[in-house]
Amino acid sequence: MIAAIEAVTTKKVELIVGKPSPLIIETALEVMGLKPDDCILIGDRLETDIKMGKESGIATGIVLTGVTDEKTLKESSIYPDFIFQSIADLQDLMVWR
């Protein structure tokens, strides 16, 4: 997508803010008034979701019902702090303020 934009506009993209850019996390934390220690980033992709959380200093959890399966997880150099078999396992993590 970036290459297409650059080709059409003849301008080089200066800043990428999509996953796994930590700018997304920094902005979300600022808007919500949270610290990285207060959060967990849960996703189904090691190379975007989990990488972004790790680079932002946030605890990470992978859900194995999405893109990443156990085989992929074992072969990856990116490793989450928590592993969930299903999104249903997240119910016990919910903390309401």
Strand order of the largest sheet: 1-2-3
What percentage of residues falls in helices of 4 or more residues?
25-40%
Question: What gap, in angstroms, lies between the N and C termini?
Answer: 39 Å
Number of helices: 4
Morphology call: globular
Overview of this protein structure:
With 97 residues, this protein is of the alpha/beta class. It contains 4 helices and 3 strands, in the order H-H-E-H-E-H-E. It has helices at residues 2-9, 22-32, 46-55, 70-75, and strands at residues 40-43, 59-63, 82-84. The relative contact order is 0.14.
Brief descriptors of the model:
12% strand; alpha/beta; 3 strands; Rossmann fold; 3-stranded parallel beta sheet
How are the SSEs ordered, and which strands pair?
Elements: H1 2-9, H2 22-32, E1 40-43, H3 46-55, E2 59-63, H4 70-75, E3 82-84
Parallel strand pairs: 1-2, 2-3
Condensed summary:
The chain has 4 helices and 3 strands; from the N terminus they run H-H-E-H-E-H-E. The protein has 97 residues and is of the alpha/beta class. It has one domain: HAD superfamily/HAD-like (Rossmann fold, 3-Layer(aba) Sandwich), CATH 3.40.50.1000.
